[in-house]
């Protein structure tokens, strides 16, 4: 598709991750002309999938919550017109997540608060009061976030220090002295790359509540969200172009962006611009001098969440039975300890899932294992770039590094599933560099800017910038994850649409 020469759009959106696509859909459906520019050969950001040995692998989204009828993400997907076009597999009611420890003990999270409480009280009969208190605290916390309840008015949680400054680890520790229960309740903290000293309880609460409200896998991969959203955007006249890397901006006399400039010199003009890429990278593209020094310094010095090493096994045919739940494996007792890992005994904590592929129902075609990895481990290859759009080489040393890390992961997973090695047909992996190159942040961070209960205002980033017609969206603005990014897209678009009316459309969908 070629753009019309000299055309000015209402909106140019940089980056086709979920935040960019959701903004594009909202604005296009309200009658605005929209252009989405994506630097890669595939749209979707963390929603991307890839295929190896005829097996489909997700890069970032392995399951999703809040999908029970009427729940917030269910309603958002209905509003986007994609719910009935997507294929979901509900995870087991009695265990959608299993928290597993080195001693072999397993603790299952059941779907819904009733099932969750029943399971937990069964494991910890003397801790009933703590478990009920914990569940009530999650519900009470979630009530403080209006948009997560499909409301536009209500308490401003950002001004409530009792919400923003409550630390997740400290709160859970305050309700029970039972160390194992503490670790079970926080056992899926890989969902937000939890850091003991930093992670606020509200992050834990919003994410736990989401999965307790309907946990599902995508059948045949999560890229269907991006595919269906892009169809909706185009139906409303919006445009999406791939392999269009934005590297700079031009300005008018009023200090507004007049055009964005691509790597190949091409220019796109719009009245408004929305950046769905990391705020620090956005500053680089749009010019450091356009932002106040205090803002630049704050954004550039914010701590990003740790990156990941993602390993995919493809299995021999009918070799490994499909698991309709996920496993969070901890080889150390402290479930928060995997972030500061020891390289010799790595990986200490990791996530295991088997994607559901429609043609194989009883047996798994593949397995995905996601574990923490610091970007420093791949720093020696940081000057390299390797994507489909920019196919550079990292060299033999990098491949050897990956093979060594893959072997460490296989040895660990053999402790959980003895004999699994013989069932593996092929192994593929992605490092922090892979995530950096495809997602567009500087260190391969999985969930962007870390929220910090010790200084919450420092990690709050406004959707509006000092440049009058440049706005931000994506996982750094509100929260990460499918639900968090969708909410942040609505927050960004509230500057251009009637928020009461748009949320009513979501509720009525």
| Helical content band | 25-40%
Determine the strand fraction and express it as a percent band: 15-25%
- Would you identify the regions where 5 or more consecutive residues have pLDDT less than 50? none
Query: Major β-sheet, in short?
Result: 7 strands, mixed
Main CATH class of the largest domain = Alpha Beta
How would you state the average pLDDT, rounded? Answer: 92
- CATH architecture heading of the largest domain: 3-Layer(bba) Sandwich
Radius of gyration: 22 Å
Number of helices: 15
Number of strands: 18
**Spatial shape:** globular
Secondary-structure topology with pairs:
Layout: E1 8-14, H1 18-29, E2 34-37, E3 49-52, E4 55-58, H2 72-79, E5 88-90, E6 97-101, E7 106-109, H3 112-123, H4 128-142, H5 161-164, H6 168-175, H7 179-185, H8 201-212, E8 216-218, H9 223-235, E9 239-241, E10 246-251, E11 257-262, E12 267-275, H10 279-286, H11 293-301, E13 307-315, E14 326-330, E15 349-353, E16 366-373, H12 396-416, E17 424-430, H13 432-439, E18 470-472, H14 481-493, H15 499-508
Parallel strand pairs: 1-2, 1-12, 2-9, 6-14, 12-18
Antiparallel strand pairs: 3-4, 5-8, 6-7, 10-11, 11-12, 13-16, 13-17, 14-15, 15-16
Helix pairs in contact: 1-9, 1-14, 2-15, 3-4, 4-8
């Amino acid at each position: 598709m070629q753009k019309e020469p000299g055309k000015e759009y209402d909106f140019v959106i940089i980056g086709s991750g979920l935040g960019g696509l959701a903004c594009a859909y909202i604005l296009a459906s309200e009658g605005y002309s929209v252009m989405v520019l994506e630097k890669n050969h595939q749209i979707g950001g963390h929603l991307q999938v890839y295929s190896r040995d005829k097996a489909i692998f997700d890069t970032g989204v392995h399951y999703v919550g809040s999908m029970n009828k009427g729940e917030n993400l269910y309603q958002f997907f209905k509003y986007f017109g994609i719910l009935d076009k997507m294929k979901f597999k509900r995870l087991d009611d009695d265990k959608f997540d299993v928290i597993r420890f080195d001693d072999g003990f397993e603790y299952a999270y059941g779907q819904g608060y009733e099932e969750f409480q029943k399971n937990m009280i069964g494991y910890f009969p003397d801790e009933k009061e703590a478990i009920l208190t914990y569940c009530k605290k999650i519900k009470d916390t979630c009530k403080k976030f209006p948009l997560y309840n499909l409301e536009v008015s209500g308490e401003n949680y950002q001004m409530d220090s009792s919400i923003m400054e409550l630390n997740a680890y400290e709160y859970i520790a305050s309700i029970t002295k039972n160390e194992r229960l503490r670790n079970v309740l926080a056992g899926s903290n890989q969902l937000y790359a939890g850091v003991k000293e930093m992670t606020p309880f509200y992050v834990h609460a919003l994410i736990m509540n989401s999965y307790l409200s309907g946990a599902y896998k995508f059948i045949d991969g999560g890229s269907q969200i991006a595919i269906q959203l892009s169809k909706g955007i185009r139906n409303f006249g919006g445009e999406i172009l791939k392999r269009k890397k934005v590297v700079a901006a031009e300005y008018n006399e009023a200090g507004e962006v007049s055009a964005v400039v691509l790597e190949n010199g091409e220019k796109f003009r719009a009245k408004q611009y929305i950046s769905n890429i990391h705020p620090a990278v956005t500053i680089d593209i749009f010019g450091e001098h356009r932002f106040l020094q205090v803002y630049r310094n704050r954004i550039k010095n914010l701590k990003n969440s740790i990156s990941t090493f993602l390993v995919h096994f493809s299995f021999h045919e009918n070799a490994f039975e499909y698991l309709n739940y996920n496993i969070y494996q901890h080889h150390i007792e402290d479930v928060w300890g995997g972030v500061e890992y020891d390289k010799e005994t790595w990986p200490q904590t990791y996530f295991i899932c088997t994607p559901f592929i429609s043609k194989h129902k009883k047996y798994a075609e593949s397995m995905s294992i996601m574990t923490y990895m610091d970007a420093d481990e791949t720093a020696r290859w940081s000057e390299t770039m390797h994507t489909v759009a920019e196919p550079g080489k990292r060299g033999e040393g990098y491949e050897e590094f990956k093979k060594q890390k893959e072997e460490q992961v296989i040895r660990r997973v053999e402790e959980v599933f003895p004999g699994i090695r013989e069932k593996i047909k092929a192994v593929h992996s992605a490092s922090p560099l892979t995530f950096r190159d495809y997602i567009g942040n500087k260190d391969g961070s999985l969930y962007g800017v870390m929220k910090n209960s010790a200084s919450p205002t420092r990690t709050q980033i406004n959707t509006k910038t000092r440049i009058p017609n440049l706005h931000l969206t994506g996982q750094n603005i509100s929260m990460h994850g499918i639900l968090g990014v969708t909410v942040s897209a609505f927050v960004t678009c509230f500057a251009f649409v009637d928020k009461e009316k748009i949320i009513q459309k979501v509720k009525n969908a």
